[in-house]
Amino acid sequence: MTLPIDAIQDGIIADFGIFDQWMEKYEYIIDLGKNMQPLDERYKREENLVPGCQSRVWLHAELVDRKVIFTADSDAIITKGIIALLLQTVSGQPPEAIGEAELYFIDRIGLREHLSPNRSNGLVNMIRKIKSVASGFSAAG
Amino acid sequence: MTLPIDAIQDGIIADFGIFDQWMEKYEYIIDLGKNMQPLDERYKREENLVPGCQSRVWLHAELVDRKVIFTADSDAIITKGIIALLLQTVSGQPPEAIGEAELYFIDRIGLREHLSPNRSNGLVNMIRKIKSVASGFSAAG
Amino acid sequence: MIGTTEAGQKENLSGGKPFNVEEVRQDFPLLERQVNGQRLVYLDSGASSQKPRSVIDRVSHYYCREHANIHRGVHHLSQHATEAYEGVRETARRFLNAGHGHEILFTKGTTESINLVASSFGRKFLNPGDEVLVSMMEHHSNIVPWQMICQERQARLRVVPINRAGELDMDALESLLNERTRLVSVAHVSNALGTINPARDITALAHERQIPVLLDGAQAVPHMHVDVQDLDVDFYAFSAHKMFGPTGVGVLYGKEELLDAMPPYQGGGEMIERVTFDRTTFSTLPYKFEAGTPSIADGMGFGAAMAYYDQFDEQEVIAHEQDLLTYATDQLCELDGLKIIGTAAHKAGVISFVFEDVHPFDVGTILDQLGIAVRTGHHCAQPLMDFYGIPGTVRASFAMYNNRSDVDALVAGVRKAARLLR
Amino acid sequence: MIGTTEAGQKENLSGGKPFNVEEVRQDFPLLERQVNGQRLVYLDSGASSQKPRSVIDRVSHYYCREHANIHRGVHHLSQHATEAYEGVRETARRFLNAGHGHEILFTKGTTESINLVASSFGRKFLNPGDEVLVSMMEHHSNIVPWQMICQERQARLRVVPINRAGELDMDALESLLNERTRLVSVAHVSNALGTINPARDITALAHERQIPVLLDGAQAVPHMHVDVQDLDVDFYAFSAHKMFGPTGVGVLYGKEELLDAMPPYQGGGEMIERVTFDRTTFSTLPYKFEAGTPSIADGMGFGAAMAYYDQFDEQEVIAHEQDLLTYATDQLCELDGLKIIGTAAHKAGVISFVFEDVHPFDVGTILDQLGIAVRTGHHCAQPLMDFYGIPGTVRASFAMYNNRSDVDALVAGVRKAARLLR
Ligand SMILES: Cc1ncc(COP(=O)(O)O)c(C=O)c1O
Ligand SMILES: Cc1ncc(COP(=O)(O)O)c(C=O)c1O
Question: What does pTM read for this prediction?
Answer without folding.
Answer: 0.95
